[in-house]
Specification:
Distance between the termini: 34 Å
Mean pLDDT: 82
Order of helices and strands: HHHHHEEEHHHHHHHHH
Strand content: under 5%
Helix content: over 70%
Structural class: mainly alpha
Strand order of the largest sheet: 1-2-3
Largest sheet: 3 strands, antiparallel
Number of strands: 3
Shape: globular
Low-confidence stretches: 232-236, 392-403
Radius of gyration: 23 Å
Amino acid sequence: MWAIKKNIKGDSVLWTVVVILSLVSLMAVYSSTFSLAYRSEKNALHFLVKQWMVLIMGLAIIYFVHKINYRKFAGVAVLLYIISIPLLLYTLFFGTTLNEGSRWIKLPVINLTFQTSDMAKLALFMFLARLLSTKQHVIQQFNKGFLKVLFPVILTCILIAPANLSTALMLGFTCCILFFIGRVQVKHILFLALMGILSIGAIYTFSKITGKGRAATWEKRVNSFLGDEQKSPEDKRDDEFQITQAKIAIASGGLIGQGPGNSEAKDYLPHGYSDFIYANIIAEYGLVGGAAMVFLYLLFLWRSILIFKRCPYAFGAFLAVGLSITLVFQAMLNMAVNVHLVPVTGLTLPLVSMGGSSIWFTSFAIGIILSVSRFVDEEMESPKKKTARINTDKNNQSGLAPA
């Protein structure tokens, strides 16, 4: 144990947050999958063991990635982004349809499915960190600077949007934040926002005319969120079933909750182990537990911002802040959906919702953030050690060294 602790570097608070979220995930997934295990005719421990193995693999990914110097990811970012584009195209046309959307591809032989948008998010922010760091001297110029960093954002979001609009919108918004931090002019960021609105309009229109795409699903979710009174009571009940059950789960939690595994709402809430796991957490741990989850994600963002401020190199700084913003923003969106502040999006709660590849890609991103933290700490300690060694040599020469 001491040997492992000695080899773990980087921000200790970030490590603590990751471990706590992993433990919360195990408890929440185990509690919310009893009905799923029964319907699937599996042992009650099946999904707990599966999630435990996924999280162990995730922690291993974080550990091994954080040992790599973050500067080496500059070259990996280009390769990863180039690979992500054809994968997104393949998913768009030939992806496996789950939950009314073609978001997944299945790997042959091992029979593993994963969301290419998860890989694309990671690749895009790594690539943007590289571009922003190399274009700082011309970033405020539209042609030489901004257009060069705008193109990958537009391309990625357009390829993701038809099958997964919520992820595309999240990416676009977090990229705008990263651009603002990267000294891009506000008028250019507004131009990106306008391009995003026009692109969504074009995709929606194409879907309505051709009948292909998810325009009907988008309309259904927005109308359900707004409370469309023109629908029949049966249709309205079907559309709002998920969010209604989430409200029941949250209301039953009270201040301190019903206790681990004691919530009855988990047996009725669809996807209570993934998209709506936050509602189950509130049901079992109450308002206190829900607020603690918000605090953990905000603490993760705050520590990442401190890394950003300390990092002497632009690439590492943009890596830390870009990857942390997208992770925390996704968490906030998921929690907002659960409490009915925004329409249903299908985004999971990072490191907590039951999953496989999504947790592993999130772990890779966290490993990169911790890599930046680790090597920033080492670079800051080196001058101090050098100064201390010089002072020791001087003391030895003058006979002032301690006995």
